[in-house]
C-alpha cells in the first residue's frame, strides 16, 4: 500500500532531480488527495 509519506518523498525527489512537472496525473487515491500532497504540488 502506498502511503502519503512515501508518495511525498518520491515527488520531492523527482522534483529535485527533474524540476516541477506541468501536469501531475494520479488515480485520485486517498494518498494523492490529502492536503499534505496537494499542498506540496501547489507550492
UniProtKB/TrEMBL annotation:
SUPFAM superfamilies xrefs: Ribonuclease H-like (SSF53098)
InterPro entries with a match to the protein in the record: RNaseH-like_sf, RNaseH_sf
MF terms in GO: nucleic acid binding
Domain of life the protein comes from: Bacteria
UniProt-recorded name of the protein: Integrase catalytic domain-containing protein
Species this chain originates from: Candidatus Nitrospira nitrificans
